[in-house]
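Following up on my earlier message about magnesium ion. Here are the inputs again, as you asked, copied directly from the submission form:
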Amino acid sequence: MHDDIAEILFTEDEIAQRVGEIGRAITRDYADVADEGIVLVSVLRGAAIFMADLARVIDLPLEMDYMAVSSYGSGTKSSGVIRILKDLSTNIEGRHVIVAEDILDSGLTLEYLLKNLSERHPASLRVATFLRKQTQPQAEIDCTYLGFECPDSFIVGYGLDYAEHYRNLPYVGVLKPEVYR
Ligand code: 5GP
Ligand code: MG
Ligand code: MG
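Thanks, got it. Here's what our run produced:
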């Protein structure tokens, strides 16, 4: 275990198992629209690893696209100010879209994104979030596909960073508070 990690929450094996389950659920749920295909949208950069793994366990025609939004900088609390830094390259009108997020904290990022994406009139729009933090208050977001609930600590690994570090840890853990204090 990395020296800066206080505790491992989900191991590499547990993550692979759960992502596999989500991929199979999506494959089943979208079987009827398989010929239209789906568009997986990842919110950079944290969700890139989750989406890459998820895409490989979905047995349907799919496209992958990316958005980048700012909400955090290198601090640890959401600013509530969301700005699109990079938009989709795909026209999602009439498409079945699944937004892959790394972690739902205040929910402000997803709330903004879902509103923004729904204005483009996709055929359907759902959320797959790898983690949902037990944060209060949290915007009410319907997470059709959820990896794990996690405690309200600062979490890194499996795509999640602190100041761009730790994204490559294959597990998810709690960062020691002395690292960011
Ligand atoms: P929200 O808008 O839901 O408060 O925050 C969403 C974004 O904040 C997430 O997509 C993620 O980038 C970042 N974030 C929230 N909590 C954590 C955390 O515990 N660890 C890391 N690394 N990022 C977090
Ligand atoms: Mg994110
Ligand atoms: Mg970050």
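One observation from looking it over: Residues 46, 72, 161 surround magnesium ion (ligand 3) (CB under 6 Å). Hope that helps, and feel free to reply on this thread.
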